[in-house]
């Protein structure tokens, strides 16, 4: 048994590590949470990065192919995803979440906020806000979506106002490519107390 473990560690483990390297040409993947899964796909000409911001709790982001997010001084436009659980899993609960997010931004006075009207065909109820950060001019457009008991934020961020508007179509495309499904609950095991 020990020889088999050593053989695994010496010969097979390095291949597993190599297989887990990020794919520089990946364009699609999955996000998942409690009771849900979402298939995502990058806008045309963009790539999926599911590793760079994991330490910050961001498990998927898109940016144009051929650009890099390594140099903070010259960041490309980025679309990223974030999710949270709603206490009230209704459209009213989504509105309450958005109102609280607005209140927190206004309380910090770190950004100016403005509602944005956009057309998204695959979600009936959603909210969209533009933020301009006062300290550095960074621009964000945040779209708040609801699926089941989750609020899902899709955020377009650019380092400056000038190019931001040019990337709203990619934000809409990323959202249009989202496909949520409810995860099936595992049936109880015979003889279990659940």
In summary, what is this structure?
The protein is of the alpha+beta class.
Name a few traits of the molecule.
194 residues; seven-stranded antiparallel beta sheet
**How many runs of DSSP E, i.e. beta strands?**
10
State the distance separating the first and last CA atoms: 36 Å
**Low-confidence parts:** 1-22
* General shape: globular
Describe the structure.
This protein has 194 residues and is of the alpha+beta class. The protein has 4 helices and 10 strands. It has helices spanning 2-19, 91-108, 161-164, 168-176, and strands at residues 28-33, 36-41, 46-49, 61-64, 78-85, 111-115, 126-133, 139-147, 150-158, 179-182. The strands form 2 sheets. A 7-stranded antiparallel β-sheet has the order 3-4-5-9-8-7-6, with helices on both faces. It is globular and about 55 Å long. Mean pLDDT is 83; it is low at 1-22.
Blueprint of the fold:
Layout: H1 2-19, E1 28-33, E2 36-41, E3 46-49, E4 61-64, E5 78-85, H2 91-108, E6 111-115, E7 126-133, E8 139-147, E9 150-158, H3 161-164, H4 168-176, E10 179-182
Antiparallel strand pairs: 1-2, 2-10, 3-4, 4-5, 5-9, 6-7, 7-8, 8-9
């Amino acid at each position: 048994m020990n020889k088999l473990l050593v053989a695994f560690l010496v010969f097979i483990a390095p291949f597993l590590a190599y297989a887990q390297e990020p794919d520089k040409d990946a364009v699609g993947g999955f996000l998942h949470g409690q009771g849900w899964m979402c298939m995502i796909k990058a806008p045309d000409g963009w790539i999926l990065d599911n590793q760079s911001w994991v330490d910050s709790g961001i498990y998927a982001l898109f940016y144009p192919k051929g650009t890099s997010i390594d140099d903070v001084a010259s960041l490309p436009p980025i679309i990223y995803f974030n999710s949270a659980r709603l206490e009230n899993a209704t459209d009213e609960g989504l509105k309450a979440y958005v109102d609280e997010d607005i209140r927190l931004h206004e309380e910090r006075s770190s950004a100016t906020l403005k509602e944005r009207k956009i057309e998204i065909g695959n979600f009936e109820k959603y909210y969209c806000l533009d933020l301009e950060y006062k300290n550095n001019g960074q621009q964000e457009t945040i779209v708040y979506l609801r699926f089941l008991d989750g609020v899902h934020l899709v955020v377009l961020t650019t380092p400056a106002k000038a190019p931001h508007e040019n990337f709203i179509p990619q934000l809409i495309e990323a959202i249009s490519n989202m496909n949520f499904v409810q995860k099936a609950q595992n049936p109880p095991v015979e003889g279990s107390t659940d």
